[in-house]
């Protein structure tokens, strides 16, 4: 009898132990049939893409994601929202329509991007390494206080995606009602947030997580930077021309009293700060004051995307440059900064471009211009164009 009692006790302990281990160790992911039916193999909720633990080089120190950390779940929802044309009133435009993976998440349109009721007011900005920057404001004129706020502003714009609630447009609440009627969103919002409720802040957080996950650190510059202790050292993998261009980029210029360069470098890093190549938040406008409508002047453009992936690895531009999209080559961009002309009415020109109150005259030689361009080409990566976790989930 005693032996039977001991055996029963041991079996009971084993059963309790196994049951506890099963409950504590394994998370059961519910079936989400509509996600499976819509996205097939592009999204596997049991095996999410890696968004939250990507490799970041040790020399990259800026990070503006602290208030909305990237999660695999949140970025997965953000990816769907980013590519979904249901976010425009006529089901034709998504965020990805103006921010294309094949163009480093910029637009290869010459100037304006197409919307549902017209075109964008400025050239679409590339979305590379937005996380790795001190600047937290968005749009060329910094009118959005954060990336989160920015993400839904194009949706609520009459010309862009059309849920403005004005001019006879549907409102953002109408968009939420639309999304609430889509079965895969019921499942995805439950998966990410624990319930089906859809709110603007949830949409904003998910979109911002996906956008901040888009990163590029596989350029020739990065390969060289890992071999040295700071940017000022010659990179062993660079040509002499590329190292010369790097020195020109990093070294501040010396000017005479008339704003003419008499020594030093050309000082690009004063505004475009290595190694992230993000824009200094204190920057003012760069001397380009045109508008896409060709009426009046625009002196409010003080932000710029990272200089990483200006071009593809074959040297072709991902998109035309500046908020007007009116500069079509790197040579032309370098030429603009070589000779700054202060346009009438431009009271917001950055002080670094008007030494002594005069537009800077860098007086670069042809060889210096060529070297600077060669350096900018080293900032081109390759993975960002092909990585499936940033591609459309609607395409198998």
TrEMBL record:
What Gene Ontology molecular-function terms does this entry list? Answer: cytochrome-c peroxidase activity; electron transfer activity; heme binding; metal ion binding
Annotated signal peptide = 1-19
Kindly state which keywords UniProt assigns to this record, in alphabetical order: Heme, Iron, Metal-binding, Oxidoreductase, Peroxidase, Signal
Q: Where in the cell is it found?
A: Cell envelope
Pfam families reported in the protein's UniProt record: CCP_MauG
Q: Which InterPro entries match?
A: Cyt_c-like_dom (IPR009056), Cyt_c-like_dom_sf (IPR036909), Cytochrome_c_Peroxidase/MauG (IPR051395), Di-haem_cyt_c_peroxidsae (IPR004852)
The residue ranges of the Cytochrome c domain are 73-183
Q: Assign the protein's first listed, main location to one coarse class.
A: other
GO CC: one term? cell envelope
Highest taxon of source: Bacteria
Name of the protein this chain belongs to = Cytochrome-c peroxidase
């Amino acid at each position: 009898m005693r032996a039977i009692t001991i055996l029963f006790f041991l079996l009971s302990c084993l059963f309790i132990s196994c049951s506890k281990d099963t409950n504590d160790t394994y998370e059961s992911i519910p079936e989400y049939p509509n996600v499976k039916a819509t996205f097939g193999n592009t999204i596997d909720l049991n095996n999410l893409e890696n968004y939250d633990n990507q490799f970041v080089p040790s020399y990259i120190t800026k990070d503006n994601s602290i208030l909305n950390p990237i999660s695999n779940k949140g970025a997965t929802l953000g990816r769907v929202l980013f590519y979904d044309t249901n976010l425009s009133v006529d089901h034709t435009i998504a965020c990805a329509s103006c921010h294309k993976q094949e163009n480093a998440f910029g637009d290869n349109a010459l100037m304006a991007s197409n919307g549902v009721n017209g075109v964008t007011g400025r050239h679409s900005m590339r979305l590379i390494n937005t996380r790795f920057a001190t600047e937290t404001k968005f749009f060329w004129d910094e009118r959005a206080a954060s990336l989160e706020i920015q993400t839904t502003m194009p949706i609520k714009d009459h010309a862009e995606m059309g849920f403005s609630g004005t001019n006879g447009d549907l409102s953002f609440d109408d968009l939420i009602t639309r999304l609430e009627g889509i079965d895969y969103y019921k499942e995805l919002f439950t998966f990410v947030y624990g319930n089906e409720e859809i709110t603007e802040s949830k949409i904003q957080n998910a979109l911002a997580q996906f956008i901040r996950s888009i990163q590029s650190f596989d350029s020739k510059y990065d390969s060289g930077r890992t071999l040295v202790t700071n940017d000022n050292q010659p990179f062993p993998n660079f040509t002499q021309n590329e190292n010369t261009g790097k020195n020109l980029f990093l070294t501040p210029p010396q000017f005479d009293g008339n704003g003419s360069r008499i020594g030093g470098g050309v000082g690009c890093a004063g505004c475009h700060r290595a190694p992230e190549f993000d824009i200094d938040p204190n920057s003012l406008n760069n001397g380009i004051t045109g508008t896409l409508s060709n009426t009046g002047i625009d002196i409010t453009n003080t932000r710029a995307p990272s200089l990483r992936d200006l071009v593809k690895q074959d040297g072709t531009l991902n998109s035309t440059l500046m908020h007007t999209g009116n500069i079509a080559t790197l040579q032309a961009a370098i030429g603009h900064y070589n000779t700054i002309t202060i346009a009438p009415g431009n009271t917001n020109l950055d002080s670094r471009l008007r030494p002594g109150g005069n537009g800077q005259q860098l007086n670069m030689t042809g060889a210096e211009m060529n070297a600077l361009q060669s350096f900018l080409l080293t900032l081109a990566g390759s993975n960002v164009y092909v990585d499936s976790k940033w591609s459309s989930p609607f395409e198998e």
